[in-house]
Write a structure and sequence with these properties.
By secondary structure, the chain is mainly beta. The chain has a domain at about 5-85 and about 185-200 and about 215-385: Neuraminidase (6 Propeller), CATH 2.120.10. It has four helices and 28 strands. The protein starts with a helix and ends with a strand.
Length: about 375
């Protein structure tokens, strides 16, 4: 297992996940919060669609304990699952799920809306793994898996071909976080020969490229745009701060995207054309807020669901829809869907107090993530609405 965000998202009980994410940054562009909050749930009022085959949850007209129309995607035989990515059309979901062997045997899964449930993608010879991203057509999946000698390596899985080990940057481990639309470019983080963590960009036929840092020793690539030319993530500066970065395949160095007044930020996603970046950043008073960055406008604070903090994890192809998690007025953390000009919509939970949306389809209509059930289990969910 690696110490990185991407590989640490799964394999945790709900309270551990909740506590871990309280450590994520802080952010604010003063004066935007009131405006955004005023347009949160009532203005958007997007109605969720019924659940798909291979999932469980509310049907139109049915009474349900589910809050807001989330559909449970199940597991691989155990109690836990989490969805990390969705294909462009919303038909293929990938993530990690507990097998019947128990929590320490979570495997990468691929779920399709015309199937009877999850497909177990296996490992690289070890016992566990996670799928973190999927190509636009759902045919290529990337993530990390344990090898036969107990190391965690980035993988690229292709329909009909199985898992390919992408190697490292000279060290022992690596993890893949994202993949381009055509499945040809993979990004993530890997250990270097001197034991540092660096962001990488892997291209079919060229292997791993070390993207460097912002002057420090650590970095991690968390997302890539549609054609594989723009990479975003976080990197350490020369003075030891963590900053969101945007890297472009044009010969230039990493661009530090700054913060919302504090000294910490991370970029988690980028639009198809590379122009819109979303993530989380800190404010001067050490609070964390979801941000949406553009070159012309800089960082925009997306507000909350009435609470103190928020986190953005994914963005639609055109950059207009952002998803993540935000605190409610009573201190619960709920998945949100934010639309440009309309603000945040609370997507509810699977019967308890906690949820997080981690990915969104290209058109912004399908959201996937993880939520706590009334039994205290964490389950992958899918949430859909008509645009």
């Amino acid at each position: 297992m690696t110490p990185l965000d991407a590989s640490a998202r799964a394999l945790r009980a709900s309270r551990l996940i909740d506590s871990a994410r309280r450590l994520l940054g802080m952010a604010a562009v003063i004066g935007t919060i009131t405006l955004l909050l005023s347009g949160c749930t009532s203005k958007q009022a997007a109605e969720p669609l019924p659940c798909l085959p291979g999932s469980s949850g509310p049907k139109i007209g049915d009474p349900s304990p589910y809050d807001g129309g989330m559909c449970d995607l199940g597991t691989l035989g155990g109690n836990y699952s989490s969805a990390y990515a969705v294909s462009a059309d919303g038909a293929v979901v990938v993530g990690a799920a507990e097998t019947s062997d128990g929590l320490f045997y979570a495997h990468a899964f691929r779920w399709t809306n015309d199937s009877n449930g999850m497909q177990d993608l296996g490992t690289l010879g070890g016992q566990y793994g996670e799928a973190h991203a999927v190509s636009a057509d759902g045919a290529v999946v990337v993530g990390w898996a344990e090898t036969s000698d107990g190391q965690s390596h980035a993988f690229r899985w292709a329909d009909g071909k199985g898992m390919e080990d992408l190697g490292t940057l000279g060290g022992e481990w690596s993890v893949a976080s994202a993949v381009s639309a055509d499945g040809a470019v993979v990004v993530g983080a890997a250990e270097t020969s001197d034991g540092h963590t660096h962001a990488f960009r892997w291209a079919d036929g060229n292997g791993m490229q070390d993207l460097g840092t912002l002057g420090g020793k650590k970095s991690e690539a968390l997302a890539v745009n549609a054609d594989g030319a723009v990479v975003v993530g976080w990197a350490e500066t020369s003075d030891g701060h963590t900053r969101a970065f945007r890297w472009a395949d044009d010969g230039n160095d990493m661009l530090d995207l700054g913060t919302l007044g504090g000294d910490w930020s991370k970029a988690y996603a980028v639009s198809a054309d590379g122009a819109v970046v979303v993530g989380v950043a800190t404010t001067y008073d050490y609070k964390s807020y979801a941000f949406r960055w553009t070159e012309d406008g800089g960082m925009q604070n997306l507000g909350t669901l009435g609470g103190n903090e928020s986190w953005a994890y994914a963005v639609s192809a055109d950059g207009a829809v952002v998803v993540g998690a935000a605190e409610t007025s009573v201190g619960h953390r709920h998945a949100f869907r934010w639309v440009d000009g309309k603000g945040m919509q609370d997507l509810g939970t699977l019967g308890s107090d906690w949820s997080r949306s981690g990915a969104v389809s290209a058109d912004g209509a399908v959201v996937v993530g993880e939520a706590e059930t009334s039994d205290g289990d964490i389950r992958a969910f899918i949430w859909r609405t008509q645009m």
